[in-house]
């Protein structure tokens, strides 16, 4: 697959900068707020069923979203309803002023997490370390000191649980009134872009965000280009495949991440409105997911291409088929998982889809059980390599030469020139005997001599046969020739040694020559090979030496 270039992604260049906001939430080292105490009344209220809050404050996600919408509409009295104000602040009617101050703090020195990262559960995130009544939703900096922005669960007017920006967060916002200064964006924007608004924000802020994204990407492109050049200059392997492919695979995703990190710094230092950044928060998460998927996609291609080259050098065509199949399967799985993650980010309920996918996967696995078994068997054959194409082997009762190892089955051509096709699931479970990779061949003939061969003749023949073996350079060291038994119709000599042949044909030639030399040695010594024979006794006949037997004593 050709690598994507900047020319092919003009739209992405305008949007990639928003990625950083999804990942740029450092944990402050100081000014941590302590979680509030858990009360039985709040727990009971949460467990009860309450009607929907008109302001959507039943969950942390709803509270943050409602506050952003209110300040975008410049409806600060409504935005104040998302703040946890104590009785003194409520009596002073400074709620709208505090809501505007909180917005200004987030505009210039704060960040809010993407909505998809916030809890949509009335109980909030119970697994974090903030306590059951607090959820972390962002960060802010005041006088050089960073702290977390929290929402806390409290009892609403109807007695039901609602989430509000915590009282400690609210108390820190008035400190900004005295030192508040116009952000850089407001200083440089012309009045026409400052006065005309869209979505509750000056148009200039939207344009500044897009300009920052393009600038961040250009800076990231220059940095990655220089780093890639230095890597290729100092590392010789990086100039050739497969290392070059891996370097290229990492280049674009790293460029995207670097661009968004630069963007978050630019957007925050420029004082771009939190409303603009929050509107694009889901898009930043999606771009981040796409960047990760793109990285994995390219790594799959790089690894597969590397494997293909090695398999081609080995002549393993079946392995190439497996590699291509695994690449397609991995990419399909990547697309499915990426789609589910993106849909979840956009707010779709993917739980039902995952359950249906799981049930469908089980049904598919049951229906294609043999197919899956054969595929697993083929992967096992490729991984373990008990045989290769061209090997002469014995599988179960089938003996022949392997002609093809496919995705579903393996083909063996027998000595009768027939083709036997064995499913890989059965093939991998059978006893496989491979004759092609023997380092030596057993030479173990038994010479059957006539009964009239004398012991001296046998001793002489043993020495002669052993010298024949020793004189052959292809015979392994320490060959053995022994008189092993007196058989039913012969005197048996056993030869036991190994022949160091390169292949089976050479072994047959050497075996033939050695047997002929042994036959010559037997005949030269006046000896001969025994033939299978038996003695037949007829009724009334006497044993061969019956008349020579001495009479028994006392007869």
Automatic annotation (TrEMBL):
<feature type="transmembrane region" description="Helical">
    <location>
        <begin position="283"/>
        <end position="300"/>
    </location>
</feature>
<feature type="region of interest" description="Disordered">
    <location>
        <begin position="29"/>
        <end position="61"/>
    </location>
</feature>
<dbReference type="InterPro" id="IPR006685">
    <property type="entry name" value="MscS_channel_2nd"/>
</dbReference>
<dbReference type="InterPro" id="IPR010920">
    <property type="entry name" value="LSM_dom_sf"/>
</dbReference>
<comment type="similarity">
    <text>Belongs to the MscS (TC 1.A.23) family.</text>
</comment>
<dbReference type="InterPro" id="IPR011066">
    <property type="entry name" value="MscS_channel_C_sf"/>
</dbReference>
<feature type="compositionally biased region" description="Polar residues">
    <location>
        <begin position="29"/>
        <end position="46"/>
    </location>
</feature>
<dbReference type="GO" id="GO:0008381">
    <property type="term" value="F:mechanosensitive monoatomic ion channel activity"/>
</dbReference>
<keyword id="KW-0732">Signal</keyword>
<dbReference type="Pfam" id="PF21082">
    <property type="entry name" value="MS_channel_3rd"/>
</dbReference>
<dbReference type="InterPro" id="IPR011014">
    <property type="entry name" value="MscS_channel_TM-2"/>
</dbReference>
<keyword id="KW-1003">Cell membrane</keyword>
<feature type="transmembrane region" description="Helical">
    <location>
        <begin position="206"/>
        <end position="235"/>
    </location>
</feature>
<keyword id="KW-0472">Membrane</keyword>
<feature type="signal peptide">
    <location>
        <begin position="1"/>
        <end position="24"/>
    </location>
</feature>
<dbReference type="Pfam" id="PF00924">
    <property type="entry name" value="MS_channel_2nd"/>
</dbReference>
<keyword id="KW-1133">Transmembrane helix</keyword>
<keyword id="KW-0812">Transmembrane</keyword>
<feature type="domain" description="Mechanosensitive ion channel transmembrane helices 2/3">
    <location>
        <begin position="331"/>
        <end position="369"/>
    </location>
</feature>
<protein>
    <submittedName>
        <fullName>Mechanosensitive ion channel protein MscS</fullName>
    </submittedName>
</protein>
<dbReference type="InterPro" id="IPR023408">
    <property type="entry name" value="MscS_beta-dom_sf"/>
</dbReference>
<feature type="domain" description="Mechanosensitive ion channel MscS">
    <location>
        <begin position="371"/>
        <end position="436"/>
    </location>
</feature>
<dbReference type="InterPro" id="IPR049142">
    <property type="entry name" value="MS_channel_1st"/>
</dbReference>
<dbReference type="GO" id="GO:0005886">
    <property type="term" value="C:plasma membrane"/>
</dbReference>
<dbReference type="InterPro" id="IPR049278">
    <property type="entry name" value="MS_channel_C"/>
</dbReference>
<dbReference type="Pfam" id="PF21088">
    <property type="entry name" value="MS_channel_1st"/>
</dbReference>
<feature type="domain" description="Mechanosensitive ion channel MscS C-terminal">
    <location>
        <begin position="450"/>
        <end position="524"/>
    </location>
</feature>
């Amino acid at each position: 697959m050709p690598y994507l270039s900047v020319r092919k992604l003009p739209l992405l260049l305008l949007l990639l900068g928003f990625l950083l906001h999804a990942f740029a939430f450092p944990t402050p080292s100081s000014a941590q707020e302590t979680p509030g105490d858990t009360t039985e009344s709040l727990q009971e209220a949460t467990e009860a069923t309450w009607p929907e809050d008109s302001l959507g404050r039943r969950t942390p996600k709803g509270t943050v979203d409602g506050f952003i919408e209110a300040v975008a509409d410049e409806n600060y009295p409504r935005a104040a309803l998302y703040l946890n104000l104590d009785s003194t602040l409520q009596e002073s009617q400074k709620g709208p002023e505090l809501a505007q101050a909180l917005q200004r703090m987030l505009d210039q020195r704060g960040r809010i997490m993407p909505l998809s990262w916030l809890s949509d559960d009335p109980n909030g995130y119970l697994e974090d370390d903030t306590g059951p009544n607090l959820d972390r939703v962002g960060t802010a900096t005041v006088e050089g000191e960073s702290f977390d922005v929290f929402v806390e669960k409290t009892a609403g007017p109807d007695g039901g649980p609602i989430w509000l920006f915590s009282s400690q967060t609210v108390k820190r916002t008035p400190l900004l009134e005295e030192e508040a200064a116009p952000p850089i964006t407001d200083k440089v924007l012309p009045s026409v872009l400052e006065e005309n608004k869209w979505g509750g924000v000056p148009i200039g802020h939207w344009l500044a965000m897009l300009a920052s994204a393009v600038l961040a990407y250009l800076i990231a492109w220059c940095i990655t280009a220089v780093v890639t050049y230095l890597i290729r200059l100092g590392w010789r392997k990086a100039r050739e495949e497969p290392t070059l492919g891996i370097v290229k695979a990492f280049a674009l995703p790293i460029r995207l991440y670097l661009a968004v990190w630069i963007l978050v710094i630019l957007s925050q230092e420029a004082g771009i409105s939190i409303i603009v950044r929050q509107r694009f928060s889901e898009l930043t998460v999606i771009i981040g997911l796409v960047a990760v998927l793109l990285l994995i996609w390219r790594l799959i291609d790089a690894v597969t291409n590397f494997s293909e080259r090695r398999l081609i050098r080995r002549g393993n065509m079946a392995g190439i088929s497996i590699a291509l199949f695994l690449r397609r399967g991995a990419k399909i799985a990547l697309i499915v998982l990426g789609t589910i993650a993106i849909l979840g980010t956009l707010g779709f309920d993917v739980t039902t889809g995952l359950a249906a996918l799981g049930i469908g996967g089980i049904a598919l696995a049951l229906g294609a059980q043999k197919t899956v078994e054969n595929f697993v068997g083929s992967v096992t054959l490729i991984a373990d390599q008990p045989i290769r194409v061209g090997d002469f082997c014995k599988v179960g009762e089938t003996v022949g030469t392997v002609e093809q190892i496919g995705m579903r089955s393996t083909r063996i051509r027998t000595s009768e020139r027939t083709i036997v096709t064995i499913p890989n699931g059965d093939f991998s479970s059978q006893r496989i005997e491979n004759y092609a990779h023997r380092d030596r061949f057993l030479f173990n003939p038994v010479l059957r001599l006539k009964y009239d061969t004398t012991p001296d003749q046998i001793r002489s023949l043993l020495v002669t046969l052993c010298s024949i073996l020793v004189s052959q350079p292809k015979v392994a060291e320490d060959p053995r020739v022994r008189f092993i038994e007196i058989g039913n119709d012969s005197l048996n000599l056993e030869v036991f040694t190994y022949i160091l042949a390169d292949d089976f044909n050479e072994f047959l030639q050497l075996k033939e020559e050695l047997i002929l030399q042994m036959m010559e040695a037997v005949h030269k010594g006046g000896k001969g090979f025994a033939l299978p024979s038996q003695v037949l006794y007829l009724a009334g006949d006497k044993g061969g030496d019956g008349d020579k037997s001495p009479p028994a004593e006392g007869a």
